[in-house]
TrEMBL record:
It comes from Arenibacter arenosicollis. It comes from the Bacteria. This is GNAT family N-acetyltransferase. It holds the Pfam family Acetyltransf_3. InterPro entries: Acyl_CoA_acyltransferase (IPR016181), GNAT_dom (IPR000182). PANTHER family: GNAT-FAMILY ACETYLTRANSFERASE, SPERMIDINE N(1)-ACETYLTRANSFERASE. Residues 9-170 form the N-acetyltransferase domain.
Length: 174
C-alpha cells in the first residue's frame, strides 16, 4: 500500500489526543469562511466526532487526516469529502493551522501525498477543490500542483456582509 509519508511530513488519522488541536482549529473564526462553520463547536461534540473517525470512507463519504511534521507535531488537516465512488470523484480541502507554517511546502507535500493515495488506492479519477477567489495562496498552490481552474461559482459564499466568488479546481487522473 502507498505510504502516506513524504520527505518532510506524513499524514495520519485523527486520534483522541487530537481533541485540543481540533477544538482550537474548528473554533478559529478566521477559518470559518472556508470551513462553512457558523458557530463554535463544544469539546463534547468534537469528542463524539473523534469517537467515529475510524469509520470507512465508503461509509461516511469523507476522510480527515492530520498533517504532521516528522517529529509528530500536528501542523494542520487535510480532508477528502463528497466521496463519490460511482462517479470516481472526491473533493479535497486543506488547512495549515499556524500562519508561520504556511508557504513552506507543507500544503503542497500534503496535497501531493493525498492525491497519489486518492488516485492509486481509492481508484478515483478526479479530485476537485473549492477556493475563494481572494485566497491567492491557495489558488497558487492548487494551480502549481496541476489542478485546473474549471469554473467560478458566483456569489457562492456570504461572509462579512458580502458575497464572494468561489473557484472550482479539478485534477483528472490520466
Amino acid at each position: 500500500m502507498l505510504s502516506l509519508k513524504g520527505e518532510h511530513i506524513y499524514l495520519r488519522g485523527l486520534e483522541p489526543e487530537d481533541l485540543d488541536f481540533l477544538y482550537k482549529l474548528e473554533n478559529d473564526p478566521e477559518i470559518w469562511e472556508i470551513s462553512g462553520t457558523t458557530s463554535p463547536y463544544s469539546k463534547h461534540v468534537l469528542k463524539l466526532y473523534l469517537d467515529n473517525v475510524h469509520k470507512d470512507i465508503y461509509e461516511v463519504k469523507q476522510l480527515r487526516l492530520c498533517i504532521c511534521n516528522l517529529k509528530g507535531t500536528v501542523l494542520g488537516l487535510i480532508d477528502l469529502f463528497d466521496f463519490d465512488p460511482k462517479n470516481l470523484r472526491v473533493g479535497m480541502g486543506i488547512i495549515v493551522s499556524s500562519k508561520g507554517d504556511r508557504n513552506k511546502g507543507i500544503g503542497a507535500e500534503a496535497i501531493d501525498i493525498l492525491s497519489k493515495y486518492t488516485f492509486s488506492v481509492l481508484g478515483m479519477r478526479q479530485i476537485y477543490a473549492n477556493v475563494l477567489e481572494d485566497n491567492a495562496p491557495s489558488i497558487h498552490l492548487f494551480s502549481k500542483l496541476g489542478f485546473e481552474k474549471v469554473g467560478i461559482k458566483r456569489d457562492w459564499i456570504y461572509s462579512g456582509g458580502t458575497f464572494k466568488n468561489e473557484i472550482l479546481f479539478q485534477k483528472i487522473y490520466s
